Amino acid sequence: MGICLIQMQDGTQVQFKSMALQKYVSAENGGGQAVTVDRDVPLSWETFRLWRVSETEFQFRSLGGQFLTCDAEGDSVTATAESPSMKETFSVERNSDNRIHIKLKSGTYLQATLANQLTADYPGKPGWDDNMATFEMIIVVNNLHGDYQLANGYGHDKAKEALTEHRNNFIKQEDFIFLYRHGINTVRIPVGWWIAQDPNPPPPFIGGSLAALDNAFSWAQMYDIRCIIDLHAAPGSQNGMEHSSSRDGSVDWPRYPDYISQSLDVIDFLASRYANHPALLGIELLNEPSASSVPLDVLISYYSKGYQIVRKYSSSAYVIICQRIGNADPLELYRANIGFSNIVVDLHYYNLFDPFFINMSAVDNIDFIFKSRQTQLQVLNKANGPLVFIGEWVNEWNVMSGSQVDYQNFGRAQLEVYDTASFGWAYWTLKNDRKHWDFEWNIKKKYLQLGDSSKQKISSGAWWFALAYWCLNSHYIY
Q1: Which of 103, 155, 271, 406 has the highest local Cβ count within 10 Å?
Q2: Strand 186-192 relative to strand 226-233: parallel, antiparallel, unpaired?
């Protein structure tokens, strides 16, 4: 029976409840040992992240990162595989009410046992009654809708068709004319790591991003607009979010030296290709590394090496280093000895994504801009070292009943404060399916009034992530 793409895409978090035992499947201690069927209440050990192999085949990753595995018919299932292959790939049969059967590639079905184990030895083909091989599948979280989910879920041909249509129509030369007429002098263009292997990137990614980036540079040059290339998605994901092209929400980038080395190779590719292009302003080495998952020493080492790579090709291109997101002090990057010239620290300012902002009124939000953000910018502008860049902000908040005047006042406050940043600001994003995130909509509808600014105005590529260059919001695809 077919499986719903939206429910069963990469990164979907699921739990399995034995219909016969009324117990949940659990990877003991989050992984690394046996799998049991003995929990009355499902929590983190009982939650698995899907890796989609095909429409009916999946791999299951535990909390600790290990994959469920079974050597052969008759064996128990464990959560001990560090990487998935055939032994970690299971077929899933599903009926209309979320009951499922799970079987090995050989065709043998898994079953719960009276000893609360999960074994590959159910005799024959199970029905959909409360037998030992029938489980209820509970969708816990299904919130990753990025490039990986799009390409792997649709398959190469359909994903290529969708992305080709998007790249041909979403951003055009006319958009650069709009930016030029409104005083925007730079675009920040997010890219994914696989751009360095275009036009034939590794599966499931789709080629065409490099040609789109070349188009952006050509159009930018026509209208005296500069470009910042932003490595928005690093191999393995630096923050676990869909816009970093995480497959399942994990942050594997800092765990594997090969991923860091591969990221530096991407910086080398981009710097060598665009260093002498008159439209290049700078290269951002990594977008939004996670403070909770990316150690500062690992990040500083990467930034230092990335700086040297850019300098190998250009003495003048700005090298932009992004603050860690989460509980991190931007001054940590000012204290680091990363490079000597044209260094910029990128901060992202949102009155969103944090419970702190939930109950704020319009006045509270505006006061926060002046009292907190302005104060921080004053300190950083005076710091000895890098320039400061508000690389992402948006004219949106958690105020549910804001009027147009409220939005205008909020936008005016942000512009007044962010205009003081020594390297300027970038709005996220030029176009978006959510109107207040859409720079073009804000300008045309007069919710955001630019006025006069002495600082460079930068328009960021469109949400979610360009990967590379203004890739459409994947929610639209799904």
Answers
A1: 271
A2: parallel
